[in-house]
Amino acid sequence: MSQHCDASDADSGRVVSVPHRLLRRQVRDIASGVEGELMAVVREEVSDDPVRERWVVLAYVRGPSGREISTAVANIEAV
Asked: By residue range, what is the domain housing residue 63?
């Protein structure tokens, strides 16, 4: 199910979708306290060194205002 997202540009690196059991469910970001719907989980390359890759796993949560925040996927818990 993982695939490259075409929306990423050269400056932001590569982005790969990651399946997650809480997608489209209500979650809480324990770092900020924001509650909302888990919209996406992605692996994103953030390295500025072309020789050494560095990847982070991010979760995107849409809060009640409609604005999405990103956070470490480890910070997400079901509500």
From this structure: 10-78
